[in-house]
């Protein structure tokens, strides 16, 4: 059979792999293990996006490379299948989310399989399968028993469009992460996870991880650790104490007023009758704003005087207490001491409302025009005068501590995780509310608590989940006293299922435990995790939190879940617009000389690189690419587009180029004359260099340069009149992780044994890594006069001697006297010469 029908070869080889069950991982790894994990997809109705296979192909390359290097590999795939789209579709059409989800999973699976990825499909998981979410619920019960899940009625982020509460991590710029709607604050009874108990562990754990620096930084900032102090202020004429958190106790002498958050409970006690109306009005206005808007440095400052005064403990001065929304209730104590001379927000506020500004850190610029936030000598500060910031912080904390006026304090920005959703399509929370016993966890032997069938999927909008309408399900008996009780009707957020799925893959059919401890010990942790950077503080923080809890419970034996993490860049695409700004799809366009013309009118269209979207008519459909070019061209092009982490546009010319390379490879493999070798030294050296380069590039996610190196090798060996068996097989092996179908096909057609992926990765022969001679240029007065061959390790003297020996060089030096010789080892010799006197 001649090799030209790539889609047909894909199918044939995929069937062969499946029959041979090539990618099933052993129950227990025996030797070296490699656990390679892809972020599992949400099976959306739109099908696979070309961005999905980018990460999947990278992991597949790694996995095939590791298999060929003798590792026991775990490489699973599954479905993160709870979530709003299926539920919203159900609301609109009445089709049960389970049905939509199963349909979408089938389509995703077909598409992913058609790319030929080396997954162990016997380990497939689906977060909406009761056999799976039984263990999600089990983990919730452990969190509850450890006091890490609690109920509270708190103002939370509420999306009026999605009709559900959201976690802080799901709110961007005050808008809903899913639908873009403005977030409101709404007080709702909630299940909340005490992730803040793990703030320090989650922070410290980051130091040991091989993760992108930007993602580590995002997690560190999100956890937001600040070292500082709490300071207690007496309120003039009240018994109450107002405690503030400050990172700058050194500036206490410069505190000229105080600010409490509009939500601070002390407000209603201290506000004077004259100020009451103004303060209440201000509170109502602040309730409408998101934390992010309120914290914005550049925002015009607003605020109201409460009428009350506090006493600065360090100098007994009476200072006014204000309320302003730039102080957030959720951080520190919800109250601050304001030091306008040295804090930008306090400065803007003081200027606006004419409050005192007292300089306490000396600086050249002074504080006439703006706050000074740098280091300097303390002034106007009693016993601190003459010290510098660091030293005076410690001195002030000592002074306060000795007098019971304050103490050292560490604060974290991290907030507890609002874990309840008022929706249908999620894991039911395994809790019963009993009028006598209160909140009662479901006994573990009653898990899974399955989702009941409902008639309507519509959330009530009052903050109650659709589950609350299913009376037969809601009404139950209390597991504790046996009396009538009601089930919790909130469900878990979509993040729950993805918090621990990587553990389930290790032991997916275990019905006694979420994972067998021995297996977990052997397969864990994930050696390489690949997925999008958009999960930096959501999934990647939540999963670490659950993992740390499971570690403390002894369920897992490794402290961190994901040792190495890499993010793929976004795949963009060219979009084309006409003069009127309307988008046109590729099928409406003629491409000529690198330009785009509208078929109907001939108008030239202007290209732009944008995110793929239906509205821009620039969505690339993987199915079409696969049926036209085959899986290998698709995979290889995605890896060749540019650096793995970079955003880059899909370009049809690019895939054409890769496709041509694969066709040339196929044709050459049919005509090549093989012999027992060896090949010419030059080719042997190139082969060895390529083995080293491709291996190193794969390990370091430089797939694009690995492919270039393979092309260079191909160009060399495909020109030889005959090629050694070893070089031929080596080339197939090196190419295999990138183009598994074609390489297996050629392997089979040549009658080689078994599969490429079961063969051993080629070894570098270190004696054949160095070219023994290199070509160098010889210049005379800046002009290249000859190119000569010198030993690769030639000394400067040797190079100069050989250069002088060149006949061409001697001719150009006739009548000249050499004034200077410049030798660049391995590259060139340059003579500077002047006429002889
Ligand atoms: C006095 C002071 C003087 C401050 C100075 C800063 C500079 P980070 O680093 O983010 O932890 N702060 C404390 N609680 C706050 C709240 N709930 N809402 C808004 N601001 C709050 O910032 C800590 C600083 O932010 C604290 O130190 C406090 O202002 C303010 F020259 O206290 B500082
Ligand atoms: Zn929304
Ligand atoms: Zn009870």
UniProtKB/TrEMBL annotation:
Domain Methionyl/Leucyl tRNA synthetase, which positions? 40-184
Domain Methionyl/Valyl/Leucyl/Isoleucyl-tRNA synthetase anticodon-binding spans what residues? 688-795
Instruction: For this UniProt record, give its keywords in alphabetical order, as a comma-separated list.
Output: Aminoacyl-tRNA synthetase, ATP-binding, Cytoplasm, Ligase, Nucleotide-binding, Protein biosynthesis
Q: CDD domains under this entry?
A: Anticodon_Ia_Leu_BEm, LeuRS_core
Database matches in Pfam families: Anticodon_1, tRNA-synt_1, tRNA-synt_1_2, tRNA-synt_1g
Leucyl-tRNA synthetase editing domain: from which residue to which, for each copy? 220-400
Entry's EC annotation: 6.1.1.4
Could you give one GO CC term from the UniProt record? cytosol
Residue span(s) of domain Aminoacyl-tRNA synthetase class Ia? 610-637
GO BP annotations, alphabetical order: leucyl-tRNA aminoacylation
* Residues that coordinate or bind ATP: 614
Q: Which SUPFAM superfamilies match?
A: Anticodon-binding domain of a subclass of class I aminoacyl-tRNA synthetases, Nucleotidylyl transferase, ValRS/IleRS/LeuRS editing domain
Q: Which domain of life is it from?
A: Bacteria
Q: Where in the cell is it found?
A: Cytoplasm
User: Which GO molecular function annotation, any one, does this entry have?
Assistant: aminoacyl-tRNA deacylase activity
Q: Which reaction does it catalyse?
A: tRNA(Leu) + L-leucine + ATP = L-leucyl-tRNA(Leu) + AMP + diphosphate
Residue ranges for motif 'KMSKS' region?
611-615
Q: So what family is this one in?
A: Belongs to the class-I aminoacyl-tRNA synthetase family.
Which NCBIfam families does UniProt cross-reference here?
leuS_bact (TIGR00396)
Q: Name the PANTHER family for this protein.
A: LEUCINE--TRNA LIGASE, MITOCHONDRIAL (PTHR43740:SF2), LEUCYL-TRNA SYNTHETASE (PTHR43740)
What is the protein name stated in its UniProt record?
Answer: Leucine--tRNA ligase
Q: Which organism is it from?
A: Candidatus Avelusimicrobium gallicola
What taxonomic ancestry is recorded? Bacteria, Pseudomonadati, Elusimicrobiota, Elusimicrobia, Elusimicrobiales
